[in-house]
């Protein structure tokens, strides 16, 4: 034994660790490589609601605090501090893009998304839009990268607004943002009027 006290990770210990290391902006989680301490009973549902031990987390400030230390490794999600790394469940994407603003038109158009946790991201080369179609239904699930390799599911009303902005380009129907074209669906697969 090393004489150190063994601590089981919990939401309380994670929050205390974050607050102890908090500086301006997002914590430098990519610089941290703590040991894996196991999974905790925390999950993010498809609608963006965070749960701890089966109960919705109602304090936005606390959710934002945990979101600031969220990382993704392949298809797994973790909360990290300088001293611990714990796994959590994410049903789809950790954020939901709940609105966006449009500036400009055509290939100079800029789409600025706001998430359920008040993150702001401009879709473009560094924050691409991605559209995944369900193999059975063909229904699209639209995403935008928020930070690092974390994405937001674009909510239905915002997706419909994106479609309204759509144009045809090189055989695809999609949208422009920040000089980049993002294809939603091949033009030939659109219903004929």
Blueprint (SSEs and pairs):
Elements: H1 11-21, E1 36-44, E2 50-52, E3 55-56, H2 60-67, E4 70-73, E5 76-80, E6 85-90, E7 95-103, E8 110-115, E9 120-122, E10 129-133, E11 140-147, E12 150-154, H3 156-165, E13 167-169, E14 172-177, E15 180-186
Parallel strand pairs: 1-6, 7-12
Antiparallel strand pairs: 1-2, 2-3, 4-5, 5-6, 7-8, 8-9, 10-11, 11-12, 13-14, 14-15
Could you explain how this protein is built, in words?
By secondary structure, the chain is α+β, with helices and mostly antiparallel strands. Helix content is 15%, strand content 42%. It has three helices and 15 strands. Strands 3-2-1-6-5-4 form a six-stranded mixed sheet. The protein has a six-stranded mixed sheet with strand order 9-8-7-12-11-10. It starts with 10 loop residues before the first helix and ends in a 7-residue tail after the last strand.
- List low-confidence stretches: 1-7
**Which strands sit side by side, in order, in the main sheet?**
3-2-1-6-5-4
What portion of residues belong to β-strands? 35-45%
Percent helix among the residues? 10-25%
Short description:
The chain contains three helices and 15 strands. It is of the alpha+beta class and 193 residues long.
């Amino acid at each position: 034994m090393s004489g150190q006290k063994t601590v089981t990770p919990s939401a309380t210990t994670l929050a205390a660790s974050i607050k102890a290391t908090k500086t301006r902006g997002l914590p430098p989680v990519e610089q941290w490589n703590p040991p894996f301490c196991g999974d905790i009973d925390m999950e993010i549902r498809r609608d963006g609601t965070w749960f701890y031990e089966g109960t919705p987390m109602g304090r936005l400030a606390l959710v934002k605090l945990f979101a600031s230390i969220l990382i993704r490794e392949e298809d797994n999600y973790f909360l990290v501090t300088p001293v611990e790394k714990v796994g959590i469940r994410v049903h789809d994407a950790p954020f939901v893009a709940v609105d966006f603003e449009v500036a400009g038109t055509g290939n100079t158009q800029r789409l600025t998304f706001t998430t359920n946790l008040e993150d702001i991201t401009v879709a473009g080369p560094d924050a691409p839009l991605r559209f995944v179609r369900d193999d059975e239904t063909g229904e699209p699930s639209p995403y935008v990268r928020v930070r690092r390799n974390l994405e937001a599911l674009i909510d239905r009303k915002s997706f419909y607004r994106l479609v309204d902005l759509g144009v045809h380009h090189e055989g695809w129907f999609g949208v422009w943002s920040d000089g980049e074209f993002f294809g939603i669906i091949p033009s030939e697969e659109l219903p004929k009027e």
